[in-house]
Amino acid sequence: MKRFLIVLASLFFLSSSIFTTEIQIRAFPGFFIPLNSSFSYALGQTFSLDLIPITVHERDDIYFSTQGSFSFLNGSGLSIPYYEGGLAMGYNYRIIDRLSLSAEAFANFYMVPDVVVGENSYDGLSGLSFGGRLAANYYLSPDFVLSFCCGYKNYLYKPEPFLQTIEAGIGITYNFSKGIFGATNVELSDYETQSLFPIFYSRYDDHEFGSVSFINEEKNDITDVVITLFIESYMSNPVTIAKYDLIKRGQSFSAEFKAFLNENILDLLQTQLATAKIQVSYRSLGKEMTFVQNVDLQTLPRNSMTWEDDRRAAAFVSGRDASAQLFARQIEAIIRNQLDPNIPVNIQYAAAVFAAIKTFGVNYVVDPSSAFTDNVGTNTVDFLQFPYQTLLYHGGDCDDLSILNCSLLQAMGIETAFITVPGHIYMAFDSGVSPDQAGKINRGRTIVYEDKVWIPVEITVMQDTFALALQIGYKEWIKYQDQAALVPISKAWEEYSPVSVPESDAGIKMPEKSEIIKEFKAALKAVR
């Protein structure tokens, strides 16, 4: 048993370390007809251990073998054993997927031992033999082959050959590489991955974040091809990303990375590499085969985003953000009894949000390493804050303040929008009045879009007055009207779903009620 394990280990080493090398063993019992001999026939068994290091014309093989056999010569009332061992070299020509023809030449050392039959004894002899063999091979599977063999062998001896034979037999071949070691010949030809953005984790279910290509290097067509993807860090189960009924020999096939990622990815606070396991399962000549390839995926921190599409920032706008929701509810409670019946309710709540943020001490802070001005329209990674973070840090840049204001108003049930102008992003809110009333509010400084009347607010002046914020917001829209864009958050959410994180319940403490009411009343003067 120990020797057997050593042999298996050696075969595994050879099959894994030699490029394209396969290992197989053949066994073929044979029936031999002696030529010009007193013996009538011989029966024997040959074993061959083959090394296949070379493939030509894509699926033809050149192989080298070490062979051994034992046989019995029969005739004239005698049965004489003899043994052989030697080397062979052959060529296997694959005609179709399941059929090949092979030819090999061999040279052996043979030995006939001393034999005693009754009162007679026969001296043994030894020498060299050589010959050739032809075979027709039928592939039952990639690892089992049935063969019909025929050949010629000459046993050299002086002054004349000891024996010449022709042979025929049926043999079986077992390919260790394809069988025990499961070697496959599907090869990775190319792959491309994109960085994963945790904020868009739900989007990856139907939007690709990479692709992979394979080529069928098997010596036959393959069927029932299934490609699966599994990212252990962010998935519960593998997902099928492509299926093919048939892939021809030498044909390429591919798949796009799409998967339902779980919320664990939102825990990521720094860039990490995740391993994606890509598995190709298929049938080769009826046998199930599996090829596995691992690739690395760069996963960015959860606050990361790029600005190829301005709508992406809507994923950070969430009325479900616990801190934003609590902040908004308390604002509503504080000013509920302070509302002016002559001013549209949405405008008053927008003024109240401005007043509360100002009183809370949220400031506009330019991040020189992560600014909308520098990153807009590029794939440069920007850092955006969730609403609770802007409240917790008491500051943020233009995109952070836009996200916070939109989240607070959305939590109140008021629809909001992003406004983008060259180098800047700010926000607008739905005034709640009909388009025919647009000229009667905010001194006519409104934007009518999709049957809604929007009021722009410049959020970078949060520590100034609501009147100034409205004035500058509309002025910027007019200045860049040909280049400005208004993106309703609800529309952006159709592409980029909002995300909130568990720790958004940060325990934000509200400013004094009286201070908020004071600022709120001052803000209302701008819209009366």
Which stretches are poorly predicted, pLDDT < 50 over at least 5 residues? 4-19
Rg, please? Answer: 40 Å
How far apart are the termini? 97 Å
Find the structural class using helix and strand composition: alpha+beta
Biggest sheet: strands side by side, in what order? 1-2-3-4-5-8-9-10
The total count of helices amounts to 9
> Could you tell me the strand content as a percent range?
35-45%
Helical proportion, percent range: 10-25%
- Summarize the main sheet: 8 strands, antiparallel, barrel
What value does the average pLDDT take? Answer: 91
Description:
The chain has nine helices and 26 strands. The protein is an alpha+beta fold. Strands 1-2-3-4-5-8-9-10 form an eight-stranded antiparallel beta barrel. The chain is rod-shaped, with a radius of gyration of 40 Å. Residues 4-19 have low confidence and may be disordered.
